[in-house]
Amino acid sequence: MLQFLTQSGRKTAWLFLCGLCLSSWTQAQEIRQAAAEAGRPAPLETQVGLSPELIEILKTWEKQSGSVNRSKGEFSRVEYDRIMQTARCATGRYWYEGPDKGRMDFTPNEAAEGKKTKKREIEFSCQPDQAKTWICNGKEILDIDIAKKEYNKIEIPLQFQGQNIADGPLPFLFGMNAQKMQQRYMLELGSLHDPKKIIHIIAYPKMPAEQREYRVAEVLLDPNTFLPQAVQLMDTTGNKETVYVFSKHDNVVGPWLPTAPWKPTMFGFKEIMNQRADPPAEREVKGGNNQGIMLR
What we know:
- There is one protein chain.
- The protein has 296 residues and is of the alpha+beta class.
- It is built from six helices and 14 strands.
- Strands 1, 2, 3, 4, 5, 6, 7, 8, 9, 10, 11, 12, 13 and 14 form a 14-stranded mixed β-sheet that branches.
- Strand 11 and strand 12 form a beta hairpin.
- The longest helix is centred in the first third of the chain and has 15 residues.
- It is globular.
């Protein structure tokens, strides 16, 4: 599964997953604002020439994702560094609640230490990754370093609170509106695509904020559930790639017990940064050029 990507696909960050920047949330607002000031409608930039099969896949992905209210699961993550020839390995768990709450816990994979793995003629030395937690509770994002007992906090702008989490940094876990998907990415079906066995989608970001963070994302979806089996991202240099392989997805019925996973006890943890992502107009007044805060 870790070998599924073409030559063009990888990066460090989540997805989901948990590692794109907040500037992607404000980018769309900036485009709309600039268009309004110029007296013209905001550009849709919808890709021309998508195959009917891919369009239908996007619509089904949107529908299936919309039916997921609460979910939790397990995954593994490997972050490959072609320059250092190291592979940082972690196991993890995730929790999701629509429309805007998510959490990912990363645990060092101690069993991988010292092992060798070969990928595209490069031998990587495996080492455990760091213990981290990433949480979005709908109003703020927490990036927690478990070992150092430190965390960063980023407030989500009011106008983006309550929106589907796919509008922010987790678009590939639970999908997004089919039209938005076409607006934000150049899309194509990958070489592993087989409608009865696996759905392979390759996505090239259109928005500058996301282009600064990764070159291309590739997703493997289960053709029956449309839940992700694997996600892989390549950084802008082509030297780092991150692969997430999902081993378990469980629907959750009823309330979270004993407590919701986005309400952690932060006793004993030190806050390092508390950042507010200002709307574009406020950043202009302040004279800032915030490019977004990376969560890794």
